Automatic annotation (TrEMBL):
Domain SGNH hydrolase-type esterase: from-to ranges: 13-143
Highest classification ranks of the organism: Bacteria, Pseudomonadati, Bacteroidota, Bacteroidia, Bacteroidales
Molecular function, one GO term: hydrolase activity, acting on ester bonds
Superkingdom of source: Bacteria
Species, as recorded: Bacteroides fragilis
Name of the protein in question: Lipase
SUPFAM superfamilies linked: SGNH hydrolase (SSF52266)
Length: 148
């Protein structure tokens, strides 16, 4: 801590395309992950790794990124997952809950600060049929219930 501000030294991000930095391009704005923007805004140097990869469901994030994140020995971790579980039609509430709880438990044992976030309502932007929109909305509520 310096002047009341926590000084993280090692930050790791795991997740899917949201964290990787994939999205709609805007003319004149470089497409970067929110992770890159966060690190750029830090008042001190911070070593970081962004292991997030587009298209992964939560069990793949667990199997492909968790150990890498732990090996990095972070004092700050971001874990945002679940979008592809819902959007790819693979939603399984219990499997998602188990994977998230497992990862959060493992990460919390490192004593790192952990950032998790609710998922937005994708149906606002993406063109789905009404029935599909309702199913996705319900599943997103289940995702966010696990996060809370």
């Amino acid at each position: 801590t310096k002047g009341g501000i926590h000084m993280w030294k090692r930050f790791v991000a795991i997740g899917d395309s949201f964290t990787e930095g994939i999205g709609d391009e805007v003319e004149g704005i470089v497409l970067k992950s929110w992770v890159d923007h966060f690190v750029q805004l830090c008042v001190h140097d911070i070593e970081y790794a962004n292991f997030a990869k587009r298209g992964l469901v939560t069990k793949e994030i667990r199997s492909q990124q968790l150990e890498k994140a732990l090996t990095f020995k972070p004092d700050l971790v971001s874990l945002i997952a679940g979008a592809n579980d819902v959007l790819k039609g693979r939603w399984n509430h219990q499997a998602y809950k188990n994977d998230m709880e497992f990862m959060i438990d493992k990460l919390s044992k490192t004593e790192a600060d952990i950032v998790i976030a609710n998922l937005p309502d994708f149906t606002v932007r993406l063109p789905f049929a009404s029935e599909k929109k309702q199913v996705i909305k319900e599943q997103l509520l289940e995702v966010n219930d696990v996060i809370c």
